[in-house]
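Thread: Newbie trying to understand structure tokens

Hi all, I'm a second-year student working on a class project, and my supervisor (Dr. K.) asked me to get a predicted structure for one chain before our next meeting. I've only ever worked with sequences, so writing a 3D structure as a token string is new to me. If someone could post the tokens and maybe explain what I'm looking at, I'd be very grateful. Here's the chain:
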Amino acid sequence: MEESMIEYPGRTSEMPERPQDEMRNYVGRDLLQGQKALITGGDSGIGRAVAVAFAKEGADVAIGYLSEHDDAARTVELIEKEGRQAYRYASDLSQADACRKLVADAAKDLGGITLLVNNAAYQAPVQQFEEITDEQWRHTFALNIDSFFYVTKAALQHIPKGGAIINTSSINGLRGNKQLIDYSATKGAILALTYSLAQSLMDRGIRVNCVAPGPVWTPLIPATFPKDAVESFGEQAPYERAAQPDEIAPSFVFFAANQMSSYYSGEVLAPIGGETLPG
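---
Reply by user tm_fold:
Sure, no problem. This is what the structure looks like when written as tokens:
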């Protein structure tokens, strides 16, 4: 790994510029009062912003994360500051048993699960397709799409009618990325999974939707891109900058709140900084 890159999975404290991911200016309206949310990849970045936003809307929140203990502790602190219950679990979600254990532990501690956010992700850029090793390909799929399957399947034992599942995809799942080929393939799979699950769970009254952001400034970026790419990250968007996680989290609140999105299932919100996609 290049010296200019921080060690994966990336920690907020090591970023050259701290992201805005604590929803400091967000004012909740009790849209999620009494809800119990499980968020994977909830320690920092988009996951942290969503966790805090959910707490500000009245939900108790459990987060899964890999090994970023300081970031996870900070997220728990922010949730508890809103007077909500918070739990954190270090889990390698590339492993099926860890996915099932995360759900079981969260359901026990929260007293159920009504909202699920599948957000954990891994990426490793390459210059040529042939650089992707068998191990990288399998790990990317294991975390980015297999974990969505295992976590969701386990969580469906707990999610009641009126509950919601929200999956995190990416602009790269909508139009591909020549340096993130395996990552883009998984993000495209998440879109298809969302569409299919929405149809499958319609009769059970569980809504399934997806958020597919453009470039977002999170610890994953300096942990996986070289310094020159980090410095210009997001400038390709029409907005000429990357989004802050705080700008993405309200899309998750929208899909989580029945008051806002009761007629939405199988939909994709794409906050992509002004880019217009054909099709």
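A couple of things are worth pointing out once you decode it. Residues 173 and 187 are 4 Å apart (CA to CA). The chain has a mean pLDDT of 91. Feel free to ask follow-ups in this thread.
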